[in-house]
Design a protein that fits this description.
The protein is α/β, with parallel strands linked by helices and 199 residues long. It has a single domain (2-196), classed as TIM Barrel. Helix content is 20%, strand content 24%. It has four helices and nine strands. Strands 3-1-2-4-5-6-7-8-9 form a nine-stranded mixed sheet. The protein binds iron/sulfur cluster.
């Protein structure tokens, strides 16, 4: 398996914000978002056994499998091995590819056309959390919400885009908060790991 990096940290975003977790970043992505700030191309080959062994060296039993796009590589056998080792498995996906069965928590962060989050194309069978990046450019977050996602039980998070420009970020954050206040089924998600200065 092509592993970009592993590290221990706090989950910085969304529903599990603040949760100690082992992060497994798999290499590669099928999208090329203009605002991508993740250096996910380089990799080290690791077997599934090596991944489980590395994750198990640490205390947290919450693993976040991210990317890049983890669906390009994630297998049912790794999911099973991690469960046998006692892990709760959270996967962060852009929603464009199918995932193996058995994942405990799917966080979908759609980056392109809203229809890509639809399970109708056989891509995702369930989503627990939808995290939409708010760019303050007139994007309608509602366009990303499919009634099929989790039968209406999906937690909805709106996260301001980090543009790398302080002044633009301040405006986007203001607009994100304003949107959430007007549409309270959405909650604000912040990249708290960046605010804390941790990975
Ligand atoms: S889906 Fe995520 S990892 Fe892939 S290019 Fe877009 S922002 Fe980067």
């Amino acid at each position: 398996m092509r592993v970009n990096e592993t590290f221990l940290s706090l989950q910085g975003e969304g529903y599990f914000t603040g949760t100690p977790a082992f992060f497994l970043r798999l290499s590669g992505c099928n999208l090329k978002c203009l605002f991508c700030d993740t250096h996910h191309q380089s990799f080290t080959e690791m077997s599934e056994e090596e991944i489980v062994e590395e994750a198990s060296r640490h205390k947290p039993r919450h693993i976040v499998i991210t990317g890049g796009e983890p669906a390009l590589q994630l297998t049912r056998s790794l999911v099973d091995k991690l469960h046998e080792a006692g892990f709760f498995i959270q996967v962060e996906t852009n929603g464009t590819l199918p995932l193996p069965e058995g994942i405990d928590w799917v966080t979908c962060s759609p980056k392109a056309a809203p229809l890509q989050t639809s399970p109708q194309g056989g891509r995702l069978s369930s989503v627990d959390e939808l995290k939409v990046i708010f760019m303050g450019d007139g994007t309608d977050p509602e366009a990303f919400v499919s009634p099929l996602l989790g039968g209406g039980l999906v937690r909805l998070f709106l996260q301001p885009l980090d543009t790398g420009d302080e002044e633009r970020n301040r405006i986007i954050l203001r607009d994100t908060i304003a949107y959430v206040m007007q549409h309270p089924k959405w909650s604000l998600s912040l990249q708290t790991h960046k605010l804390l200065g941790i990975k």
